[in-house]
Amino acid sequence: MKTTIGEKIKDLRVERHMTTKQLAQATGISEAVINGLENDNGRDVGYSRIVDLAKFFDVPTDFLLGFTESRITKNIELKQLGLTDKAIKVLLAKRQDNDLVSKLIEHGEFSNLINAIDIYVRQLAAKSINTINNLTAVVQRGVENYSLGAGSQPEGYDDAMKYINETKVDEDEFLRYRITERFNQILRDLHSVFNADEQMPSIVSDANEMSANMIDLIDMVKAGEVKIDDPMDAVELMMERMGVSESDMKDAVEMILGQE
Is 168 strand, coil or helix? Predict the structure, then answer.
């Protein structure tokens, strides 16, 4: 939900730990006008005061006026983002959900994900991983030579060799695992964000509970405890076991159909 001019001014003021009196002194705008703005009383305060506030808070006037939710577009040029013309055209075409793209970029693990991808595609870790594997190979040869010199394999030889082999790093497998691990974390978090406000009824969305009830029902039918003559009998029994009323089921179905 978009915030009003007054809410934005108040948020910016509070972020700077300022009172309305202090903001008035800093901008030269009367405290009464600032209070009026923050309370959205509809008073026409003039564009020049909006400009003064935007300059003071270092945000675009379009942000205060509600034309954009970005605070920083005033101060940057596209070239500063380091994006190619093709990448910019993709974003402007909006064939994807740019709000989702923004949340993806904002995620705390996004930079780590991109850095992990960069290390993989540019093989930036190849030298370090080869060094580790070479050291492991030296240790392995040392253990083998010791065994040969002793004339027999010492106790724990097989376990030691197994451990050494397991410490060898498969560069491709290791780096792809790190990328997948970070990407999965972002996906899980974004799924939680996008589904936090509007959840399907828990009785319907909990697949584990539904599966458990379905298995119980099948067992009851096999044991002859219940009789099912047609599919609707099974649906009614499932609804009864899960505590779902007819209206709940109808609402859930409508919700699902509405999302298609």
Answer: coil
Question: What is the phi/psi pair of residue 12, to 5°?
Answer: -65, -40
Domain boundaries, the chain: 5-76, 120-194, 202-259
Where do we find the tokens 């219940």?
226
Contact 34, 23 (CB under 8 A): yes
187-223 residue pLDDT tens: 988 888 877 655 444 444 455 566 666 666 666 766 6
Instruction: State the distance between the two ends of the chain, measured CA to CA, in whole angstroms.
Output: 23
CATH fold label, 5-76: 434 Repressor (Amino-terminal Domain) (1.10.260)
Long-range contacts (CB closer than 8 Å, 24 or more residues apart) made by 80-89: none
Burial state string for 186-222 with b = 16 or more CB within 10 A and e = fewer than 16? beeeeeeeeeeeeeeeebbeeeeebeebeeebeeeee
248: amino acid identity, one letter: D
Distance from C-alpha of 130 to C-alpha of 122, rounded to nearest angstrom? 15
3-state secondary structure of 235: helix
Residue pLDDT, tens place only, 17-38? 999 999 999 999 988 888 888 8
CA–chain centroid gap for 210, Å, is 28
